[in-house]
Amino acid sequence: LQACGAVMLPLNTRLADAERVAMLRRWPVRRVLCPGSSAASYDGFRRVPLGQPLAVAGPLSLLERPRPAGEGNHAERLHSAQMVVPTSGTSGVPKGVVLGAENFLASAGAVGRLLGLSADDRWLLCMPLFHVAGLALVTRCALLGSAIVQLSGFDEVAVSAALERQGVTHLALVPTMLRRLLDWRKGVRCPAQVRCVLLGGAPVDDALSQEALALGYPIAPTYGMSETASQVATCPPGQRPDGDGPWLSPLPGSEFRIVPLAGRSGCGEIQVRGPTLMRGYLAPDGSCHNPLQDGWLATGDLGRQDASGRLQLRGRVDDLIISGGENLYPLEIETVL
Fold this sequence. Notes:
Blueprint: E1 7-10, H1 17-26, E2 29-35, E3 46-50, E4 60-63, H2 74-79, E5 83-86, E6 96-99, H3 101-115, E7 122-125, H4 132-144, E8 147-150, H5 156-165, E9 170-173, H6 175-185, E10 196-199, H7 206-214, E11 219-225, E12 230-234, E13 249-250, E14 255-260, E15 268-273, E16 280-282, E17 288-289, E18 297-305, E19 311-316, E20 321-323, E21 326-328, H8 330-336
Parallel strand pairs: 2-3, 7-8, 7-9, 9-10, 10-11
Antiparallel strand pairs: 1-4, 2-4, 5-6, 6-16, 11-12, 12-13, 14-15, 15-18, 16-17, 18-19, 20-21
C-alpha cells in the first residue's frame, strides 16, 4: 500500500458492521479492502475484494489523497502520510491520527537504541494490527531485520506454546494478557531466551509486576499512544519498580514535561514532544489539523517526573474522586484492591 501511494486506515475488527461504516463515512475514504464474505457490509463504497493469497483478518480502508494546494498546508500533511489510525473503539467519536513514515522510522530507531534490539531478535506478534502497537512492531522488525512469529490474536495457550517452541525473544502484551498467561502457565518460569516483555496499554499493578518478575519474566512497562506512533517511554527490563510504580525512560529524542494543574499536588498533566509525534488529526473534510503547541502534545494523562527526566504515570486528568476534601485517584484505589 505504501509503495502504490495509498494512505491506509485500519479498521477495528471488533466493531459491528454499522460502526465500521459510520467510521468510514466520517472521513474521505475512497476504497475498502475486505474479504469477499464481508463485501456486502460496505455498500456505498468502492470495494476491492481480496483474493485468498492476500486475505486479511478484517477490512482495511484507503483514504483519498488530496492534492496539496501549497507547501506545508493541511492537505500536504495527509498527502504524504503513511496511515491514519483511529483512536477510539466502540464508544466515543474517533479521532484520526495522521502518521507519516518518519514517525514509524523514528520510533523504530529509538526503541531499538533504548532496548538494544538487533536482527537476531524474534518477536511474538499477538497484538491486533488495527492498533498502533501492532503496526509499530511490524515496522520495527522490518527495519531491524528481526523475525516475527505472528498469531491470529491473543490466546494464552498459543502464546505459551510459542514461548516454549518458537524461540521467541521479545513480545508485547497488555496487563490483562499477562495475567491470563501467568494463570495458564501455573507458576512455570519464563523461558530463558525471552529477553523483553513490553507491557503497556493500561496501568500495571504492583502485584502483577512482582509475580511476573519472580517467575523470570523480563517485563518492561511502557507508555505510549496512537499520537506517538506507539511507545514513547519505557522502563527497560531489569529495573524493578518501586511501590509507587515503575519509572519510565523517554525514548531517545523524546522528552516530557509536567504541567501543574489546579487542585493536584505531586503530579500534573504529561506533555510530550519528539520525532514520533503525529502530524495531526484528520478532519471529516480531509484536512489535517495539528493540535501541538510549540511542538508539545497535551496527553490528558497524569504523571510526575524525576530529576533525570524519567516519568511515572498517575492516571488520567479526568479520573478524580473527591471525598471529604481529599483527592482520590482511581488508579491508586485499583492498586490497593
